[in-house]
Amino acid sequence: MKNWSIATRLFVGQLCLVLVAVSALAVALTLDAKNQAEREAQDRMLSLSAALAVDPFVIESVQSPDPTALLQPFAQSVMEFAAVDYVTIMDTEGTRYTHRYLSEIGGTFAGPIAEALAGHAVNQMRDGPLGPTIRGIAPVRDADGKVIALVSTGVTVARNNSLLVTRIPLILAISSILLVGGAFVALGLRRYLNRVTLGQGPEEIAQMYALYDAVLHTVDDGMLLLGRDGKLVLHNDRARELLGLSAEPAATSAAGDARTQIPEDLINVLAGGDVVDNEVVSVGDRILLVSRREVRPERGIGAALGTVVVLRDRTELLQLSTELDTVHTMADALRAQTHEHANKLHTMVTLVELGRGEEAVRFAASDLRRGEVLADQLLDAVEEPAISALLLGKSAQAEERDLEFSVVSEGRIRAGALDPHDAVTILGNLIDNAMDAAAEQESPDDRWVEVELIASTEQVVCVVSDGGAGLGGASSEEILRRGYTSKRSDSFGRGIGLALVAQAVRRARGTLHFEDGASRGQGTRCTVVLPMQEEE
User: Taking every annotated instance into account, which residue ranges of this chain make up the domain PAS (predicted)?
Assistant: First the structure.
């Protein structure tokens, strides 16, 4: 029995319960039938005695000189016709005029007769010459109403019980129907429980729960378990940390109630029915990769039992990746500039060797002025070195990719006005997206990127525009809801850049807005408004 599944244990238990219930019902029906048979016998004997007591023949015969000679044949015929065991007619002293056994005639009636002599018809169950009998006694009255004799009719208890046998088949039929019906119900419940518990016993389920719960709360990834109806059943410590959930969700709470702390982007992922792999979702200050799988019984057959959602925190990794990309951009720009300067230096040396010193000077001065224009502009407008270095690096990168890159500034962004990490994340990702979109255009007129920096005493407005294909009709909300990219390839990490941008803007308490300018011959225009930080 220890190895029995929950379904088998409940089936055996229910079957035993059905057997006990049916047995108790059969006994109750038998006892009830017996009591009913006794009541019917009492009523029949009392009615027969009362009928014989008012029979004119009986009244006349008990007043005759030899009542036995007249009444004994009559009593015999009544016993045969009415199917009773005895008909006894007696005088007021209890002396029998008639009886089934002739030897008992003239003897004294076995049983009290005082109540009958008082004029009442009564029932009795007494022992007599025939054994225990169910009897009825009625007084016989003369024309003046005086009790002149008594009539008693009866049937033996054994004979009355034999009549009960005719009801036993009905009781057995009812019991059998109930037993078979209960067995089928128990069998159906067993099959259902066997299916939902996968044939596991309670000890196995308890052990599995303990092991799975230990694993659930020790893994580094956040995990959410949802029921069939979408209710949040369980989550581990890491998920509570990532999403700020309460300590223990109630399994009976509505999914909507349990998800009031979960961002709308994640709710949309949880509500979907498709498999999700590493979907980018921005939650507060974190960037999460969300995977969603439905849980099905063994071999994947049958309806889904629920859903498992895995949350992986990639915030720090993506921030480091963004910073590394920025460093790579600057390194590439320096490498390109080094290569370009080497070519220009070689050109100037050759001009000097050819005796054209003045042309070499003019060439060097021209190159110096052209390189200093953007640097001087950035130094005048941006005091934050990280932002200046980023824009210079992007300018060199754009030149390598044959893109027109321009920076328009108004006002002055003082050092410390913006968080350098947030500013690099925002501008770097927006410029990268703009350059990728512009690079896909074939016309030279559309291969451009423009950065506007407008600073006031309270805020900084950063506008990044490009000559790409635009947003394709997508709104700002749609772009930021699931991540957006101008790249055509559907690679891993798609949309992470904009997710980081949105996160950095929220962290800085700014605003982010996209405009589709394709109808005006422009690409995408992204506007970021960031409040100035107070001077320390």
Answer: 208-248
